[in-house]
What does this fold into?
Amino acid sequence: MYGTDLPKLQTPKVVINPTIPEVPIWKGRDELINQLQVKLLHSENLLKVLVLVGQGGIGKTSLAVKLLDALGVNCRSLPTKSENSKRCPYECIMYFKVHEGTTFDDVAKFLLIDGYDWDIYFSPLIAIDIEKPAELTNIKNISQTEQIVECLIKSSLVQESYDEEKCEKIYDLHRVIIEFLQAEYQEEMQHILKIAYNLYSSNSNVDNPKTLEDIHYLLEAQHFAFRLEKYDKSVGLLKKLSIPYLRRWGYWNLIINLYEEVLPYSSKLNQPYVHLEIGNAYFQCGNLGNAEKHFNAALNSEDNWKKSSYLASCFYSLGKIEFVRGNYENAEYKYKEALRLWKELDQKLNITIIWSALGQIEENRGNLNEAEILYNKALQLRQDLKNDEGIAISLTSLGDIELKKGNLDKAKEDYQQALRIHIELGTCPRIAHLYCSLGYIQYKLSNWDEAKTFYQQSLSFYKELDDNSGIAISTGCLGKNELRDGNLNEAEKLLKQALDKMQELEMTEHFAKTNYYLAYLERQRGNQDLAQYYYNRGYEVFHQLGKLKDLENIENEWTQDLSQ
It folds into this structure.
């Protein structure tokens, strides 16, 4: 077993490794090798099991490989007859990976059922390298570790930083040391990178991953492919990462970092795709300016015109930006261009996406019946295609229609059904959105505490995802809830936080509504001039958006009371 960070599993597993890793660089510890060699070769009671215990990354595997070389053991992955050194009592090495919590009984069971004829081997040595967690619970060990780390920092071998979000210290090798090691082993570096790439690539298949830790090997394989200048392979691994996992889990900033790193080196064929992925991640983070820049770069790529699917994606993506900005006619034009191209390509799933997008436009125009027809049309095709995520999205949209029609029970039913699907799929951004929608139903029912709970759950998800637009919306909802509950100071703080983010992110319609809530708040306090100021700002934006029905509602509510 080699020491690496493996995800914890409920059922321990043992896996025979296809290759024992090479050790291209070995400095020091020769005396330790000699001591172990003497003990193993001259022991009256020949050891059958050797266990190395320690934290990941301290060199257990390298030590084991060098020891086996010194003993003259055959280091092939499967035990076979070999010409051993005459002085070596061991004929082969059995090398395993095991997950944390695995016992030797688990290893023994594996050996018994795997199908090998162990009787033909005279004396195998079973080398098991068990990684201990980095958290040291022993007070004495903690104190010693702290002293060692402090000495390393003072000697400039290690540099210290502080992660404010995680509230923990981070220790890294000093940059000077890293540069020295890179220069010292420049000739071996390419070989080291290839070994790392082969190691992670051979273990990159994952089964139903739930966290970043579960796709650790895939992330590392992509990184080392990039370091080896295998840029097309690196982009291919990014597709394997982002489409089924990173997008679904909402790791937008990670997607941006990974794709922006590879963008300058991408082939012309891959550049439209890379621009689209970066643009979509920026869009999800609420950065419309950067999103638009990358969408236009993909649209104007000279190779893009050869692929109608890319063109359609560009039109759809730019349509989303126009929609968020409230430019519904421009959004509708771009959506219909995407629809035309996807119909030509018979891409049914993408066609449902456009029907939903066009439904959103009609919904925002106040044409609820037309929107409902489009949402049901998308739902029917998604059900035919057995696309669970799409079904959940359609149910959410239909819930929105029921909510606007005043059918709160039916809206709640649709939202809860969609939420169950998204929780099963692990689509975190959608889960966050649905918590916000369920909170709004409780808000409409004047259940302030229940509404607050849902809004806080939504905000927690958005913060974990680092989704700025989602954070702004959830914060605004919490502020509006506090306003209706009579907590004016807390409401003001939350609404102003939301307003700043919305203005920064060009969330035009949300910005207008939040100004309106602040106007109502100041009117409650008796600050008529300030109330009129916020009211005028919100009114002006709605007027620019051409949302006449919203303007009519605002005017009625301003003369009466807040009802939405």
